Amino acid sequence: MIKFLLHYFTSNTRHGTHSPFVYALADEVIYNKKYLNSVKQNYDLQRFSGKYDRLLQAILTYLQIDQLIFDQYRSMSDKRLALLKDAEQIDANEVSLLTSNDVLIVSGIYESTKAQQQWKTLKSNPNVHVTIDLYYFGLVFYRPQQRKEDFKLKYPFWI
Question: How far from 12 is each of 22, 48, 65, 73, CA to CA, in Å?
Answer without folding.
Answer: 12, 24, 26, 31
